[in-house]
């Protein structure tokens, strides 16, 4: 196929020459593949082959250059010579003797470097250039090599310039609710994504591929969240029957595996992660004894001394079994009912705090980071105990509630957290995405602003991004899956890249990002795809701010539903739910009820009105649909799904736009009894049904209906009946 396309390009070039036209005009964004195939040259990559982190970057770079039809050799760093007869690339850390050779070649002096830092340098001329990647440590060198690969993919090696880089935020991570086993679940493993991925948690190949991708995306932390992971990860001499052999999902046993084999697997995974600069943490909720309950008299009561002893020994054994485990975190809940903060923290100190101390008494040089979530407890009760830890502790706070996609500058920490926390305490920001599970999202400017608005300096220990209702492992719903199914951080590669890379460098240029899109999808105009993606991705943040329900169980905007749990609306959010909904604090948006009251009272309106919100949503959808209308995927399934997701998000935005207009006019009718508003409302709700059908059509083409834990099965066809019911509600008003 590529050969036929190349012959076509050559024929067209000949045609242009014959007729006096500029053949160069053929090399539009649609012909990047042909341009790359016509490039050639010899490239020698010199690197420290004994260092796995640097070797990973070098091998990645070789693959990228080879895909550009370049001849590439990987050579030991000791063979480097400053007398090149080809293009040379050097990847090393700043302790390497090769720095002297760079200086001799008149390379720009590199200032003092720290962990994760790297410098890019160019020396020489023409085909005798040398490109230098020098890291402040092995991970900095790895990141520099990855960056060089991005430059090759986006704009070509010749576009590299001298520049120094340091991480904006030192720790950039994922919140990964890990479905280890149905007997040791995470927060809620009933969903499709959890059940389908239990088996993958015990596959070393899954983890190597996943961690490689995270490193490319500049993540360096993965936090595994589980109610009580210990029976699946350790064995205790004092409680041997707690250790669980084999792997179970909700259907029964799915894999034979001894606890010893499980331990070896996780040791290998954490060792491999270290080679990619990625730290593992384990974070729990309390008091849960999944897998241990009922054995040896273990219960979930804080008064049970056996439980307390078992928990303390479990914490110690986990840390001693896994020397590469960077730390452990915990929560004073969500299963400590009727217990005050002082009692909670005393139990946590006696189990987690002393468990950590037990390990450090045996391993005095071992650094263990402890993370205490600010959730259902009191800071003073935490501090009075955990300040005794040798390495101190960090806090953790849900920075935007469960809505990472709402405001890029949420004020919850300023109002609720910082007034209670001394300035010297560092905090991990829990960036919860319980907004978008299905559709590919990608708004670089939103992420840039979000990262730059995180608290500065010592107040930020790092961040981890993830969900409570979804497992970001392998995708499980595509109707055109690869085998094995691709990773979620491959399907959502652009979103993950933004949240990882922007955390390292929030000044990452749009040009580089557009170039990466163009390299991945050479058959479409990368500027148009970048812009369409960005416009459609503005839909969910705006609708979340306008229809504000802060927690995951309350609202899922991709389906317009709530869980029915506690105070949540049960199922579809209908037209009256939109009329009565609050807006996000500090959003400068006006609720439908307040807007209608102002209209009726003829009072001054200050803020963005519901109808203006509807106009903005419509504009986002219009722009995204216009740019993608004529895009052709050329049998590239990933591109087809990406374009489909962008269109689906645009249709969803149009659905919400029409629904907001309908709700506003219905409220105007209810207050004024003016029939014209009712007529307008019915017409707008009929429009919303049209857009829901367009949204559903794409979902049907691309995806299997899946179960979301707590929210239930996302059945867009059944929900269509609810959308129709909105029209009937307006007619009956």
UniProtKB/TrEMBL annotation:
GO terms for biological process: carbohydrate metabolic process. InterPro entries: Hex-like_dom2. The keyword Signal applies. One of its GO terms (molecular function) is hydrolase activity. Keywords: Hydrolase, Signal. Residues 1-23 form the signal peptide. This is Glycosyl hydrolase family 67. It comes from Arenibacter echinorum.
